[in-house]
Amino acid sequence: MLPENIPSDIDERVSFLKKCPLFSALKKEELSKIAAFLKEKKYKKNALVFKEGSFGDTLYLIKSGEVRIVKKVTEDETIVVLKRGNFFGEMALIEDKPRSAGVITTEKSILYLLTKAEFKYLLSENPSIAFSMMQTLSERIREADYSFIEKLRRTERLSTIGRTASTIIHDMKNPIAIVKMFLEYLENPDLQDEKRTEYVNIINGEVDRLLDMVSSLLEYSKGKKKIKKVETSLTKLIIQVTSLLQMELKGTGIEFKTDFKYKGNVWIDPIRMRRVFFNLTDNARHAMPKGGKLTVRTEEKGDKVRVDFIDTGIGMKKEVLGKIFEPFFTSKKSGTGLGLAITQQIVKEHGGSIKMRSKEGKGTTASIYLPLKKS
Ligand SMILES: Nc1ncnc2c1ncn2[C@@H]1O[C@H](COP(=O)(O)OP(=O)(O)OP(=O)(O)O)[C@@H](O)[C@H]1O
Ligand SMILES: [Mg+2]
Is 0.70 surpassed by the pTM of this model? Predict the structure, then answer.
């Protein structure tokens, strides 16, 4: 198998091949043989050399110009840009599969083409070509690997920001709704002064809560996400959180009860723990669209205190129960699915744990265990 005619520009071709990493190890006679095989093809700027998914059996060498290798992910993405002396299309010579990527010229280019049959023949005569090819390919894989990992890192950073943003949105929904509700109450011109003062205080408290969230977010983004434990009366904190809830429950058919068997203090971050209590009461309430009973009970259990949120709502199937702590798992139309994920994280930060028991059609009990000791 030898080419029929010797091309007139054979010397130019040989000196080009000498500079190609793929053939640089070969002797002049061998290069002349390859040079004689090459077919030359001219391309305009932005011309399609071949499409991803097409079949082909040609290896391309870039005589002049530049090409980019593109792969469709969500849209065309450039994997690598190749210049003079480089080659592409080699995969089609190795395996009989459609092209794994497409190639487009980025400027006016001249390419040399070598068919699979010709390449195989040259390879059988000069096994060193296989070694050079492997070297170039492994370099390319290393480069692609590096850029892939970089991209993953970037995506991971972005998704962390996304997750954090969703967390804030989840937690802000509640105080914003409360502020809105009390502002509406304030619009009533017949409102007694006493009530007016009470509502303004509530609004103030909720705005403080929003400000707390913003500053804890800023802390988080700066990387200091420390909880500040202080000695707190558990009963008082629960009453504080649920007094607003009781107002919201009016007319919903939901009865609210407390059963404080533990009356002592706990070492907790009250702002964070408030979010835990809010999230659990919020879930309980939404589980009882037709009314029911919500009981909050505290009890000392060895070196821990247990806080139960017991509802007589719709309950959950086993499959649902297995997923509720996963971020973004929700069965609600407007839920974020972050409530319990955040709750569990906060409880863990306190050295505690959370357990959920539920019976479909009967109700759910969320139990949190918090350590009583200071550490
Ligand atoms: N008390 C409960 N009774 C029945 N199902 C519950 C209860 N608590 C949680 N779930 C189930 O767990 C899912 C996840 O709860 P989670 O608080 O994490 O998110 P969410 O309540 O759906 O959304 P969001 O908290 O943003 O309102 C809920 O969608 C619901 O299916
Ligand atoms: Mg929730």
Answer: no
